[in-house]
Amino acid sequence: MSRKNTLADLMKAAPDPAPQPLSRGAAGGSASLGAPVGSGALRAMGLSLEKLSADAGKARDLEAMIAAGDRVVELDPTLIDGSFVRDRIGEEATADASFDSLMQSISEQGQQVPILVRPLGDSGRYQVAYGHRRLRAVARLGGKVRAIVRPLSDVELVIAQARENLERRDLSYIEKAMFARRLEEQFDRPTLMAALGVDKADLSRLLTLAASLPPDIVNAIGPAPRAGRPRWSRLAAILTEPYAQERFAALAASAEFRAAASDRRFTMALDVLSRETPAQASPMAADGALEVSAPSGAPLARLEPGREGGRLVFANEAFSAFVREKLPELARVFAEMQRAGL
């Protein structure tokens, strides 16, 4: 069967249904469109249109690959390595509803669009340029992955990798920023702009944001697809304040934070860190004691050095009651941080 006929078969559409006559109203004989369409039907229609649009996009991708003379082969997923530049934040990129939907689609309809890989010399192994999520989905489902094998330079690989993600809108803003930062370690600015499809100003904003955020905090929060540059910039500014990163570490160790989705984690971090710290630690006193005071400067407590960690002496009765109330929670967070190795 020729490639042209193969594409024709793929692109065939179902015949249009025969037009139905409009119903007539009981009075006046005027044409009526029937009962109003319910919101559920409209939502179903919207989902159907989205699916048709996605399917058309997949068909265009496949048509372009075949027109370029590429041949689709089936490879063992265990023979394919990831890109040398990560574009996603953590493996949690696979732990979301869209990845579950992708797995279901491949399970029911097969892998519609091949991934792109390059051969790694004569080793018999390959490196993926784009299609990381499809590769992981097929690997989890079992079986071979459909792929285009094409010799690519490092620059060609990262441009293909970034362009595919941008066209499909797969990367969140922070993922794009961190990806730009990783690319900057190996490539020049023109390559970054070509790969990310941005101008100098946009690239500068991406790199500035990435440089202002500790990578471990970004990784702990995840991609947070609903958080754009303004909110991430606000979080970056807050993290420069005294004890902000320590407060985030305590939050990240909590069971609620670890169980939350990425967008919820971001919101939790911004909410907790935006609150004014109730007390601030002053430098060590001459005798080695740690004095804690309110923002107004009023003394609250003093941690005096001694055996078994020292002694905490309160100078404010309300603060003493507050600490007593919070001690069980502090002990729980401390235990979770120790288990997490923080």
Describe this structure in words.
- With 342 residues, the chain is of the alpha+beta class.
- Among the domains are: 52-171, Conserved hypothetical protein from pyrococcus furiosus pfu- 392566-001, ParB domain (Alpha-Beta Complex); 280-340, no CATH class.
- Helices cover 52% and strands 13% of the residues.
- The protein contains 14 helices and eleven strands.
- It has helices spanning 3-11, 39-67, 97-109, 132-141, 154-168, 173-184, 189-196, 200-212, 215-221, 229-238, 244-252, 255-259, 262-274, 317-340; strands at 23-24, 31-32, 72-75, 80-81, 115-119, 126-130, 145-149, 280-284, 290-293, 299-304, 311-314.
- Strands 3-7-5-6-4 form a five-stranded mixed beta sheet. The protein has a four-stranded antiparallel beta sheet with strand order 8-9-10-11.
- Residues 1-37 and 41-52 have low confidence and may be disordered.
- GO terms for molecular function: DNA binding.
- InterPro entries: Chromosome_partition/occlusion, ParB/RepB/Spo0J, ParB/Sulfiredoxin_sf, ParB_N, Plasmid_partition_RepB, Plasmid_RepB, RepB_N.
- Residues 73-166 form the ParB-like N-terminal domain.
- Belongs to the ParB family.
